[in-house]
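To close the section, here is one more complete example, presented without commentary so you can practise reading it yourself. The ligand is 2-phosphoglycolic acid.
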Amino acid sequence: MRKQIAAANWKMNLTIQQAKELLKEILDSDIKLNDKQQVILAVPAPYLIPATELVNGKEGFVVAAQNCYFKPNGAYTGEISVEMLRSIGINYCIIGHSERREYFSESNEMLAEKVNLCLNYQINPIFCCGEPLPIREQNSHNEFVRAQLQSSLFHLTAEQLKAVILAYEPIWAIGTGKTATTEQAQEMHSFIRSVMETHYGSETANAISILYGGSVKAGNAGEIFNSPDVDGGLVGGASLVAQDFISIIKSLKK
Ligand code: PGA
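Output:
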C-alpha cells in the first residue's frame, strides 16, 4: 500500500517557544506509526533546524519546508534555495500551495521549475493542486486540476513522479471550515489518479499518495481518510493544536 500521510502546514504561525511546545506534545504522545504511515511537519523556515533537532530521526516523522525558490541560487534577497534546504537535511518541501499561487503569483511553469529543482536535490515535493470556487461552480474543476498537473508535473519520468506527494486542496475549503464532502474528495482523488494512470500507467498511479487538504479537523479526518483514494491529509489550522493533530494522525488508514 502507498504511504498514508498526515502533513501539518503551520503556515506563518507560532513563535519558536510555541512551536517547540507543540512539537514536543506531538512527539511525546502515544502515537504509533506503522511502516506505511508518515507524519510530515511543514514548519516556518526559521524553525527548520530546531524542529529537525527535536524530531531527531523519530521513526516516521519528518520536517518539511513550506516553500523554496524556483532558481538554484544567486541574487534573490530573502529567498530560500533547495540547495540550502538540502544542506540542513530537509527532504520534503510543499510546492504550489494555493496561498503561494494566489498571493505570490506562482504560475504552473514556475512550479514546474521548483519541482525540477527539488528532485535534483533529492527533496520530495508535496505538490498542491485544487480549484477556486467559481471553477467548481462552473463544473470545470476536473479540467482545471488536470491542467495544473499537466503543466507542472507531466514532464517528469515515472520514476521521478514517484518521489512526488500530491495534495488536492479545493481553495474554497481552505481555512473556511467548509470541507469537501467525502464523496467530492473521493471523486476528485480518483479522477487525479486516473489522469496519472493515463500518463504513467497504473503501477505508478497506484504508488502515489494523494492527500486531501481543506478544513481537515479531528472530527472529520477519519471519514475523509477512509475513502479509497484519499491517502491522508494536508492540515493547516487543526495542525496548530497538538491534541487535534494527534487525533488526525491516529485517523490515518492502518
Ligand atoms: P486548513 O488549511 O486545514 O486550515 O483549511 C489547509 C492548507 O492550506 O493546507
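Once you have examined the C-alpha cells, check your reading against these statements. The CA atoms of residues 111 and 215 lie 24 Å apart. The first strand starts at residue 4 and ends at 9.
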